[in-house]
Amino acid sequence: MWAGLAAxxxxxxxxxxxxxxxxxxxxxxxxDGRSEPTERAEAGPGSSRPEPxxxxxxxxxxxxxxxxxxxxxxxxxxTGESAAGSSGRSSKPVIPATGPGTFTTASGGSDTVxxxxxxxxxxxxxxxxxxxxxxxAEQVEDILADRRGWTADGHxxxxxxxxxxxxxxxxVATPGTVDKICGxxxxxxxxxxxxxxxxxxxxxxxxxxLATPVYAKDVTAYRGLIIxxxxxxxxxxxxxxxxxxxxxxxxxxxxxxxxxGCVPNVWPYDEKGRYITGPAVS
Length: 282
Hints:
Order of helices and strands: EEEEEEEEEHEEHEEEHH
Radius of gyration: 17 Å
Number of strands: 14
Helix content: 10-25%
């Protein structure tokens, strides 16, 4: 079982500010980030959303990726975040350039979190990865259940399933497989970033294991940003910019492109249930 989500430490001018993870509180469920696309597809279900950093390519036929999932994520230290050897020094995870394009779905399911329309989702991990699908699923569950997440809007709920109809799937895959699936919808993820296309929240293994320089010391926190940002696109939220110097970066900001004066933050809502947003970007 995942031992819990670590607190994100944010480097400031005189020290660090904490951005912690919390579980749903009694009755008040608030919960809920990604990379850099140059394209602004519609952010709703069924739309194509590139992760910050993803470029759009000339439109091509939108062929849906395989509906049958398969894969497996990892936990510490098998997640590859920083596998420490006998010397106590961490080694960089090996990230395959591409994989078979088949997936394993995490078994079991979760309770419903949030109020309102229940969105059923599954968690898939590409086959051949040194990740446990069960561990990845547990992390995704915790992110979507956090009271600062998307359920804080008061009308969104999530439930993880392993069979039957689903509204979307969170799929961790090699850079090559992410490029292929996102490319089917005209998005160029360049082997580096994530995307949301149709009902697929595609998570690039490189970002899942290495995060970005800003979050390099707290990869777990960055995973929250990936899920919140891409699921946010699925929920029809568009990209926004930094609201102001020293303000928390919105989860829907393309933080991989730079913080622009904002401080790291992976949640769409704050502790008081206020939506964290900024100016619209084209």
